[in-house]
Amino acid sequence: MAPLEGERSSQPLSPDASDDENLNESTRESSESPAYHWPMDEDEDEDAEDPDYEDEPDEEDEDDLQGTRDIEILLENGGDDDEDEDEDEIEGVTDTQRLVNIVRTGARTGLLTRRQLIALMRSPDLTSVFLQDNPGEDAEFLNNWPFNRRLTPKDPDRFPKVPSEQGLKLMRSGAFGANDYNPRAKRHLASLLPKSRAEKIIHFDDPVYSGQFSDDGNFFFACSQDFKVRMYDTSSPYNWKHYKTVSYPWGQWTLTDASLSPDNKWLAYTSIQSMVSIAPTDPNDTGDPYTLDLDNGPPHGWLGRRGFGIWSVRFSGDGRELVAGTSAASIVVYDIESRRVLHHVRGHSDDVNAVCFADKMSPHILYSGSDDTTAKVWDRRSMGDHREAGAFVGHIEGLTYIDSKGDGRYILSNGKDQSMKLWDIRMAMSTDRFNELDPIAYVNTSGFDYRGGIYDDEDWDPHPHDNSLVTFRGHKVLRTLIRCHFSPPMSTNSRYVYSGSTDGKVYIWNMDASLAGIIDVKKATMRTRPMDNRHRPHHFDEPGNWGTCVRDASWHPNAPLLVASAWNGYNMARGTCTLHSYNDNVDDEGEPPMGQSVNHLLKEQPELYQNSTYTNGLRLG
């Protein structure tokens, strides 16, 4: 996440803007060296508020590198020897293409990552150009390059074991479902999980950033990039009704989060601003939302400015307070009735991407998760001294989300190190121990940027002071703040944990870290709306292809139904909420038909949306 610029526009970037449109390739006429040249647009504000890059807090450091940018690579065929001309020519094509692919990735932003730059420097095509004046010094330079640690293979057994022994103990303890662990029963339960085939596909004109059921299952809300929250009556889980839409009036880039009050009467929602909007959920109340300013304190930050963005917001269990995580590396506790900030604690060294209360029945204990790779425990009654009650360490990249089981004991976190972790508050590290060990010193220093990079497992190492119980892997936490959750106690007996993923899927795990199931949202929604000219700036799939990133998912508390909220469509420029349920019958004889596509008002538009024909890979009939 990144500090906000006060002068940034409150309007989102043009949906039609795409750096891909400005990508031009030209070849110089030279018999010796082909050249590839990409002119980049000069647009400081757009990169600073990077889209896909940012819904996230990390849209930061782009500003310093703006201006007219040209990436130019000259590839020379060194030497006059024609002896192995044919063989060298084939090799040259391979190397050239590889270089072009690397640069093509960086060309979309005008920047190359450190890993890409190293790959370029090590290419024989470029080393023959760059490293020819003093071969001895050049060799020493490459040998001392920091990434040469890769030449020593890491222990392939360093990854967490599956199944996890601690996870098996939890499954037998009764804390996560029945304690009679039975592999046969486990397989049977897995067959009852929601399937990839969608019951219904709700289409939105903008990417959907989050969507959640209320605790009683009677209410669902979806937040999209157009600064609107759509509310649905889901008291009948398979027959939804849209009844209200509310807007955020000063939005910057997107809505970042929303939280429903315990009595379902109020919805708090935020953008990359310090203000929270609170709207009544009553469809008969058509008044404007209330505005709460969570930044009523003195100037802060290295420039001494007021203002910050809110990445996460939650109601307390009694509905009287809000807690928020901010781009100022802080946690804010706000009293709704008196409309004043009770605590504003700078509790992390980087953006606080997620906050939640430990126990839905108590407002005292809360958690925060940050880009500084740590999750922390806070006691509301002692926050005045700005000192955490405990800390969780184990991630080696920033946290994107945290979720509480609601029992005051267990917490789940998602991390940019492509890991999800389960923690027990009883194992939290004390503040003194945390400061003594300086666990942040062990985090990865590879320079990985999850907004545009692909994570290399070679960069992953276990944290020496990891105090988590179970580590779950297999999903993709890239591009945006992917969310994770505990499965509900009623409809699943709390047996599972699950997460969205950048590859267009929802991953469901047993508590022992073994994979219980996968819901493939991308396959379920493929080509259910026509291609249009809309592009998502800095799109990361091949232009023109159908792309899906599941950012959030919500399991119905009382029915075997899961809703996945996603960036979805051609160029990943639109959004969907898809309903997935357990269905043991391949044939569909009911009404409405499975795979039905509707708009955000739940109305069919056959001229625009097509029903899905995906059947979980099975044949109909």
**Strand pairing plus helix content: what structural class?**
alpha+beta
Q: What value does the average pLDDT take?
A: 79
- CATH hierarchy class name of the largest domain: Mainly Beta
CATH architecture of the largest domain: 7 Propeller
Topology-level CATH name of the largest domain: Methylamine Dehydrogenase, Chain H
Main beta-sheet annotation: 5 strands, mixed
Task: Note poorly predicted spans.
Answer: 2-94, 127-133, 138-149
Radius of gyration, CA atoms, in whole angstroms: 25 Å
What is the overall silhouette?
Answer: globular
Superfamily (CATH H level) name of the largest domain: YVTN repeat-like/Quinoprotein amine dehydrogenase
* Total DSSP helices: 10
Q: In order across it, which strands form the biggest sheet?
A: 28-29-30-3-31
The tally of structural domains comes to: 2
The level of helicity is 10-25%
Compute the separation of the termini in Å. Answer: 50 Å
Organism: Fusarium xylarioides
WD repeats: 345-379, 392-433
Protein name: WD repeat protein
Pfam families: WD40
